[in-house]
Write a structure and sequence with these properties.
It contains seven helices and nine strands. With 227 residues, it is α/β, with parallel strands linked by helices. Strand 4, helix 6 and strand 5 form a beta-alpha-beta unit. The structure holds S-adenosyl-L-homocysteine.
C-alpha cells in the first residue's frame, strides 16, 4: 500500500472511531458505559483492520459493520469489538483468552492493550489466515491455536479475561473454570438464529460468579466441530 493509501486508511479509521463513540453514547443505558476507555480508543486507532480482511475488501475495512471473511463466518462490527474490549476491563499486565479468532482483528485490538493474548479458532483455514495476518502486522504477544474453544486453553489458564466472539446457548463451564478470581468473561448468549444478548460474567475474589445482560446482539454460533 502506498503512503497516500495509508493516509486514506487512517482518515477512514478516525471516522470509524467517531461513529463507534457515538454508538457508545447512544447505548449507554444498556451497557453502563458512556465512553470508551482511552486504551480501547488508542488500540482502535492503531490496528489496521484492512490487514485482517480478505484481499479486495480494503475499501470497506472501516465501515462500522460486520463483513464476510469466508467459511460462512464474519469479522464482527467494529462497535461490538470496541464494546466487548471495553467491557472486558483489562489492564496492561493481563493475560486474555479469545474463543473465535476469525479474522484476528479482535485479537489484535486486545494485543495492543494486554501482555498476552491466546486465541482459538475451530475452522482451520481461518485460524491459519488470522495467524499469518497477526504475524505480518507484527503482533508477537498473540498465540493462536486451531481447536474447539468450548474447552478453553487449559495449559495457559487461568486468564484475567476471556472473550467469546461466537454465540453459545449457555456459558461453557471450562471457561468459567479457567477464569481467575477477580476475572471477567464477555460472551454473547442465545439461540443460533434467535435473540442473543451480550453478557458480562464476573468471578469475584472469592470465586462467586455473577452475570449481567448488556445488549442484544447477533453473532455466528459457537459450534463444537469445524464448519
Ligand atoms: N473475533 C473474530 C470474530 C469471528 S466470528 C474477529 O475479530 O474477526 C466467530 C468465530 O468463532 C468464527 O470464525 C467461528 O469459526 C469461530 N468459532 C465458532 N465456534 C468455535 C469454537 N467452538 N471454538 C473456536 N472458534 C469457534
Amino acid at each position: 500500500m502506498n503512503a497516500e493509501a495509508v493516509d486514506e486508511m487512517s482518515v477512514r479509521r478516525e471516522r470509524m472511531i467517531a461513529e463507534i463513540e457515538q454508538l457508545v453514547r447512544e447505548t449507554r443505558r444498556e451497557t453502563g458505559r458512556a465512553a470508551l476507555d482511552v486504551r480501547v480508543i488508542a488500540a482502535l486507532r492503531k490496528v489496521e483492520r484492512h490487514r485482517f480482511l480478505p484481499p479486495g475488501f480494503s475499501a470497506q475495512a472501516y465501515d462500522n459493520r460486520p463483513l464476510a471473511i469466508g467459511a460462512g463466518q464474519t469479522i464482527s462490527q467494529p462497535f461490538i469489538v470496541a464494546l466487548m474490549t471495553d467491557l472486558l476491563n483489562v489492564a496492561p499486565g493481563d493475560k486474555v483468552l479469545e474463543v473465535g479468532t476469525g479474522s484476528g482483528y479482535q485479537a489484535a485490538v486486545l494485543a495492543e492493550i494486554v501482555r498476552a493474548v491466546f486465541s482459538i479458532e475451530i475452522i482451520e483455514p481461518l485460524g491459519r489466515e488470522a495467524a499469518l495476518a497477526l504475524a505480518a502486522a507484527g503482533y508477537r504477544n498473540v498465540q493462536t491455536r486451531i481447536g474447539d474453544g468450548y474447552t478453553g486453553w487449559p495449559d495457559e489458564a487461568p486468564f484475567d479475561g476471556i472473550i467469546v466472539t461466537a454465540a453459545a446457548p449457555y456459558v461453557p463451564q471450562p471457561l468459567i473454570d479457567q477464569l481467575k478470581n477477580g476475572g471477567r468473561l464477555v460472551i454473547p448468549l442465545g439461540e443460533p438464529q434467535g435473540v442473543q444478548s451480550l453478557f458480562v460474567i464476573d468471578k469475584d475474589v472469592r470465586g462467586t460468579v455473577t452475570r449481567r445482560k448488556v445488549l442484544d446482539v447477533r453473532f455466528v454460533p459457537l459450534t463444537r466441530r469445524p464448519g
